[in-house]
Amino acid sequence: MSIVIYIEHTEGTVKKNALEAASYAVKYAEKTGDTAIGIAIGKVSEDEIKKVGTVGLSKVIKVDGHDYLNHQKVAAILAEVANTLGANTVIFAGSSEGKATGPRLAIKLSSSVISEVVGTPSSTAPITVKKKCFSGKGLANVELSSDKNVIIISTNGFGVHEKTVDCVIENTSSTASDDSIKHLSFDRNTEGVSLPDAELVVSAGRGLKGAENWGMIDELAASLEAATACSKPVSDIGWRPHHEHVGQTGIAISPNLYIAIGISGAIQHLAGVSSSKTIVVINTDSEAPFFKAADYGIVGDAFDVVPKLTAAINAAK
Amino acid sequence: MKILVCISSVPDTTTKISFTNNSTEFDKSGVQFVINPNDEFGLTKALQLKEANPGSTVSVIHVGSATSDPIIRKALAIGADDAIRINTEAVDALQVANEISVYVKANPFDLIITGKESIDHNGAIVPHALAEILGIPSVSPCIGLEIDGTLAKLTGIVDGGKEEFSASLPVVVGGQKGIVEERDLRIPNMRGIMQARSKPLNIVTASGSASSQKIANFDAPTPKAACKMVDANNMEELVNLLQNEAKVI
Ligand SMILES: Cc1cc2nc3c(=O)[nH]c(=O)nc-3n(C[C@H](O)[C@H](O)[C@H](O)COP(=O)(O)OP(=O)(O)OC[C@H]3O[C@@H](n4cnc5c(N)ncnc54)[C@H](O)[C@@H]3O)c2cc1C
Ligand SMILES: Nc1ncnc2c1ncn2[C@@H]1O[C@H](COP(=O)(O)O)[C@@H](O)[C@H]1O
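Above: the input entities. Below: the structure tokens describing the complete assembly.
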């Protein structure tokens, strides 16, 4: 049987989380004894697609003839190609596109679907995978009894594992479509690095006292090429845009590094960030609950500490 | 316009999660259940649309047992006109989507609003799966919704930005903060609570959609080792630790 991975790209550049999905699929296929095959759709060059060879994926099917893609169209095309290949498993990155496309595809394939998955199967009979639940406050080991599965991984929940192989590309075309939704426009967040898939995140809370004080946060983020985030009240008051709100009711992230500045560490905030690999907390209050979830803590005034940290990072470059 | 809001019952956001019975079950003792926060944003949006479009109705639907009736009554107290409870234990997102689709096929709606995800299962599956079963468009997470006659204008969140779509009704929308603002959220008042008691709550027999997933057991997240404190005047040391110990920069 074959395992299919959807290779996402943004305007022709293969996304980092597509590499994570490919890396996951290669390991998954090793466990089940299946063959992993990538599917890339639309305007993306062969050289770009071949990047998945760096994580061990040796075959990709390229579907031509599509410019703009929404999740409904992608699901229609993937269903056609997956059926032709006789795929029993389809793997998606935990991106917005993966999360929107996976459930639709599952219905088309009459398969099961599971999201926020953090590891390859611990058992193959039945397929048993671990997923995040309760907004990161717990993990569930789930047995899948269906013969087909759509698996959506949790961003940064598996990582990119290098293993270089030759990647062969086969071309095909598809007429599958879905025009029931019309795309009008795309409005890119202008600020720096995109938060959902960022590896480094600098985040600040109400301890910063006002929107006018975010300059030092932006400078710290720039020194690390990190994305910026904030606590819920900060976006509620309008100091920062909503898409920066992380936590149980905002977005959940698991970067390699999360620096929390002037954030108390309320349970709802921690729920969305505690699976970050390394957490640094900067807070004036040594009793702030966030220190219990941190790897490195600094008790100090953000207005004093943050510029020093930025200078130290720039000096170490 | 007939609007349906799907609500899920979840542990209050302050709940410390623990497991029982050999880690095979979520320990519900002492846990307060609430309407999933994302669904509350959707419910408020539905009520705003109803007010802007006279003659509209807002129904809420929940797949679950009678233990969820308090949160359904709360949705009625906030302002929904009537409620449907599909009487079966919700075990996975596809089963929930299937059960709701059976009801909706027999009782059509112009607009179906869910939350972008439930904060307990974190599936983000129901909105798109339900839409696909019904063969209609979906936008989730959705932070903007305008209805003009039979046309919906929708703003969805994608990694790195926002996308605008238009589609003919019916559509499925997965709401979250932004579809209405935090300050617009409605809380039940005394009159609402009194009225909710006499609003219809229809208990519907489940179609018996099968589930193909079973939670074998739960794990707690790996606890962090003790936090290493760094002197506020020694940021060079922090940079050194991040580079050479944590190896993250
Ligand atoms: C239903 C619900 C859902 C929620 N969902 C979320 C969510 O998704 N995400 C989220 O973040 N919150 C969420 N919350 C809110 C959460 O409970 C907290 O209120 C919130 O996280 C607190 O934000 P904060 O840490 O920025 O502010 P505060 O709690 O006010 O903390 C400010 C911190 O800054 C410190 N400080 C002050 N001055 C300085 C200084 N000069 N330098 C350094 N430190 C300083 C203080 O010691 C304090 O620890 C939710 C709440 C509810 C009820
Ligand atoms: N048991 C349920 N009954 C009704 N609606 C539900 C139920 N479970 C989930 N939903 C809806 O589906 C959305 C997404 O849920 P999920 O796919 O579990 O993340 C929720 O925000 C609800 O609107």
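Note for the figure: Chain B has one domain: 2-219.
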